[in-house]
Amino acid sequence: MKTATAPLPPLRSVKVLDQLRERIRYLHYSLRTEQAYVHWVRAFIRFHGVRHPATLGSSEVEAFLSWLANERKVSVSTHRQALAALLFFYGKVLCTDLPWLQEIGRPRPSRRLPVVLTPDEVVRILGFLEGEHRLFAQLLYGTGMRISEGLQLR
Predict the structure, then answer these.
(1) Are 87 and 20 in contact (CB under 8 A)?
(2) What are the pLDDT digits (tens) for 128-140?
(3) Cβ(86)–Cβ(61) below 8 Å
(4) Contacts 24+ apart (CB under 8 A), 53-57
(5) Distance separating alpha carbons of residues 120 and 103, to the nearest angstrom
(6) Sign of the C-alpha dihedral, residues 139, 143, 149, 154?
(7) Domain Core-binding (CB), which positions (predicted)?
(8) How many Cβ atoms sit within 10 Å of the Cβ of residue 83?
């Protein structure tokens, strides 16, 4: 069930970034969110030669996001933050219904695989140890204990 949202009041500011700040404050977003969104919208405007964002379309948004990913090599979370800022800006500030903006691809974080030693590598590493250090390493490896857990043993 969808809930009806109250229409947003008209913006009093003339400048685009001031309008963005005004809308963010009206919706009670955090200060850090405001700073981040203003940063990304400003970067978007500068990327396109200080053109008004209302004149820019899907190709310009995709070009900016591609530039962030390919040239600036930003992380996935940074890329998503920039996209969220543009979605908020076009949807809540410019009040533009842009169905294409929802269809823009979102990057997925790469899954990190754990580093696993082969049995031969384990034998070689344990071969370098002697005495109680070797016993301790064998105990940790064989049981899967953490170092802190092994140190608490009596």
Answers:
(1) no
(2) 999 999 999 999 9
(3) yes
(4) 53/16, 53/89, 53/90, 53/94, 54/94, 54/96, 57/100
(5) 49
(6) negative
(7) 14-94
(8) 20
DSSP-derived letter for residue 104 is S
DSSP letters spanning 50-114: S--GGG--HHHHHHHHHHHHHTS---HHHHHHHHHHHHHIIIIIS----HHHHTS----PPPPPP
DSSP tag of 114? P
CATH of segment(s) 16-102: 1.10.150.130
Q: Which of 111, 112, 86, 113 is nearest to 101 (CA)?
A: 86
Q: pTM for this structure?
A: 0.65
CB 62 within 8 A of CB 70: no
Token pair belonging to 9: 């009041």
Question: With contact defined as beta carbons under 8 Å apart, do 12 and 22 qualify?
Answer: yes
The residue extents of the domains of the chain are: 16-102, 119-151
